[in-house]
């Protein structure tokens, strides 16, 4: 997942961001409502984690501005304002869910997964992503091909998930760098090629139709061809 965290408390923001990164997710952080709104309007995210009490522009104003611009990105409000009236106001302003502080990190992840799933409109097997006989479990972050379990590191899973989300399409190195590493990365680096090489050795075994293809001069594609 590529997420935007809008949170002004430094300790809370670092705790959440570090936890998300350890799970293999990409996470941008904005410390003010205005910066957060700008980021949400100019970049693409799977979901936004939004505090209510923010400098420059409060969380509900950020949310209302997003919805007024037609942004349908799932938004989870994470706030110390946890009374029933607070939660109702947040949901009525356009939030997809509301989690009061203090919170469980595991519950935060579960709620994010749920609102993203609802936003994608997935009904059957909502926690799975499949390409041919390759299956990714988005909750346990595990992969298998047929009956064979594939052991992946966090970044490898994130790259594979991104490729699976764009199955059949050419994904460029720059697209993967922006989606997976989530910061200004040297586009001349070979980090993508190294990870792809490792992924290919794990995914495509002798006797199996190749799934991970190099599109010379363009990037990579995940499908059976």
Assembly type of the chains comes to: single chain
Largest sheet: 5 strands, parallel
**Would you report the number of β strands?**
11
If you compute it from the alpha carbons, what radius of gyration comes out, rounded to the nearest whole angstrom? 19 Å
Question: Helical content, roughly?
Answer: 40-55%
Please, could you describe this protein's structure?
This protein is α/β, with parallel strands linked by helices and 225 residues long. The chain has 2 domains: 119 residues, Rossmann fold, CATH 3.40.50.2300; 95 residues, Arc Repressor Mutant, subunit A, CATH 1.10.10. The protein contains 8 helices and 11 strands. The strands form 3 sheets. Strands 2-1-3-4-5 form a 5-stranded parallel beta sheet, with helices on both faces. The protein has a 4-stranded antiparallel beta sheet with strand order 6-7-8-9, with helices on one face. Strands 10-11 form a two-stranded antiparallel sheet. α1 links the parallel β1 and β2.
Care to give the gist of this entry?
This protein is an alpha/beta fold and 225 residues long.
Secondary structure: elements and pairs:
Elements: E1 2-6, H1 10-22, E2 26-30, H2 33-42, E3 47-50, H3 59-68, E4 75-79, H4 84-92, E5 97-100, H5 105-120, E6 128-131, E7 134-137, E8 142-145, E9 148-150, H6 154-165, H7 173-181, H8 191-203, E10 212-215, E11 219-222
Parallel strand pairs: 1-2, 1-3, 3-4, 4-5
Antiparallel strand pairs: 6-7, 7-8, 8-9, 10-11
Helix pairs in contact: 2-3, 6-8
